[in-house]
Amino acid sequence: MDLSPFETDNSVSCRLASQIPDVCRTEDCCLGIDEAGRGPVLGPMVYGICFCPVSKKQELKDSKVADSKTLTEAERENLFQKLDEARSYVGWALQILSPNTISTSMLQRTKYNLNALSHDTAIGLVQFALDSGVQLKEVFVDTVGPAEKYEEKLSKRFPGIEVTVRPKADSLFPIVSAASICAKVARDRVVKGWNFAEDLGEVDTDYGSGYPNDPKTKAWLLKYLDPVFGYPQFVRFSWSTAQTLMDSKGVTVHWDDDEEDGEKAAQRQNNKSMLSYFSASAGGNDQNPTHQTHRFFTERRLKSLNRL
Amino acid sequence: MATKKKRTLNVQNDSWVVIAADSVMDRHKHESDPAFVRLRNPSTDVASLYMLSSDDVQLFEVKAFEEDFHSWFVGQTVQRDGRLLFVTLMDPLYLILPYLIKSGREGKFQPVDQVVMDEEFPACSRLLSCTRSLASLHHIAEEKEVGKLKYHRYSQEKTMNWLKKKVERTVIALKARNISVGEGVKSSTYVRVKSESDYDEEDYLRYAHGLISEYISEDLSKALLKHLKLPELTSPKETEPPSKKRKLSDKPVEAGEDYTKFNSADFVRKPLKKMTAAQKTLAKVDKTGMKTMSSFFSPKVKAEKK
Q: How much is the pTM?
């Protein structure tokens, strides 16, 4: 697995893929989708697909791929090796969503939540397989959110393909297990060799599992909190763990889409209460009630100062 | 998720982000530094910030661009206020004018250095060092020379002509810069059917007058409006909202329109001149034994009588 395309710029989303086996272009294929790194506050989320001809399902089963969570890292590496050896009939593709992509998606003005991001990434990968000429007939997915809704969404999006969405699909269908192994291996490797874009000097890489409840991760987050900038791009800013720490230890930053109490916000912006328009004019509260700055200046937000 | 953030008041800055003309910093010939000074704003009559270049050669006004939620990254530091200061050249005559008007009420010719004095803003006497000040005093005052000394007296007539020229020049600048002078806010990306050139000359004059009024007293602004022969607009603040009820009067109520012509004897509904093909074929249909459409809507009076 060559991770260099992602490592050259780990701030964006990146797709990695194996060669498409010739047999997948001619025979009916099944495809599994799974993800790794949904929960951690550190590092990327990786989406993986794995596909093979329906006729080769048994061979895949015999290679004893299993749910990646039940395996040790060494076993996963081992199984990935096996999948690589089976490249004549097994293909895979990965979408690495950098922590920065996750942060910016979830924190942008029109919020793009993690479920929507996950669904769209999965759809993108299936479309990639189709575009590459893989003869897809069956798709198996480990669910994100309610299974029926997700299944309906995918079936509508890909008519003619039999879509099966099941919780725990990674332990039910070998092709999903294979996908989960690819995703997990990629995530492990990326996290281990993370290239910090920030100039942090010698970085302490002992950040534990990256999950919010890991004490090591928490200690690392405290250590690398910059009062102005928050965190390196390795951290998902949208995670409440990171947000809480930044709120309490960092400098307060205000954005103009911060939610504030309507009345308070209005007061801050010197807005008038609607009611004031109905009462008899009592004059403004300005120093000089008769003077109204010309709109040339007000439209350009320009004002005179009386001191620096 | 997000806790309520407290907004603390702006901490005093010791640096500013400023856009200024090179001439502010022109130190080839001069010794002293340019300096921010507080002077009486001729329009608001309270303190405003100005800048005098080195050796008080030029006067600049200071305007700040200020909007919520802005900050600066300056080199390796963060500056909390996102304020951008503009230091732009200004005619010192605007600031001298109120002092001349004040002394002009006495009607005497006086030396300007005795006129331009202010206990509250002692820096105002430095305005007279500006290169343009003394040379352009004749625009707003009559001059008398006795020996080597010059005496001045405020002239409303001269001032009005001077301000009128200012307005006219502003109009030229507004047109050259394509500044929207029409009513309403205009977005630069929003293309109007009506192009800028369609705005009335009056719109430009009024807008320019408003701009110049930012630099003169309200009385002078009103006088200038008259001088420009622009009718005074009543501001919406002063006008009462129109009452919805029509005022009662003793006169008998009369109809606003005359409908009686339809009732006259010679009024005949004219047949339609042209009928469409469909209407023609319908007209040819045998209608015997058929009720008219309207009969279905009239009250069934006849049937009851029988």
A: 0.72
